Amino acid sequence: xxxxxxxxxxxxxxxxxxxxxxxxGLKSFDMSERGFWRSFAALWLTLPAYVVSLAFERxxxxxxxxxxxxxxxxxxxxxxxxxxxxxFLALPVAMIWIAxxxxxxxxxxxxxxxxxxxxxxxxxxxxVPAMLMLLGWAPPGLASLFSLAFAxxxxxxxxxxTKSTLGLTSVPALGIVVLGIVLNAFVSTAMRGLLD
Length: 196
Hints:
With about 200 residues, this protein is mostly helical. It has helices spanning about 5-20, 35-40, 45-60, 75-100, 105-135, 140-165, 170-195. Keywords: Membrane, Transmembrane, Transmembrane helix. This is Yip1 domain-containing protein.
């Protein structure tokens, strides 16, 4: 299932509205069953972020060298790819049970659609500071500062989107966002455990 340029444009525009605390941005997303599955296909748009993650992990492992291909170690490539996909899927899968427990079954599909698009944008934006550091254009301290600033913006965006799609108050919505952060930290730790 291929994501069209129009859908990417509408979904990014809707995400920008949500970033500015405008709940009407939800109207920009395709909330149909087709839109649900296409929001997962949007993971392909994060391929640049995967490449940056792969380069960053290879640098951490001491395997990043100018004379070697970035894709010359199948194990590293596969583990980073699995971590990338698992990080994308972790919260939508966990929300299957949480939405049932909170009796929010009807809100599950809109929540996942919006969350997937936010994840796409989040992965791309958060890869920029790492890329700048890898290219030598930003020292590690500055790259970390950029990453922290971008992460705060994305967490706030996810919090507002969670409130808007699930109809929750601030505290439960924040709890779901924190769960997503914890799941992503677990995925990252597991991935690095396989690589070390």
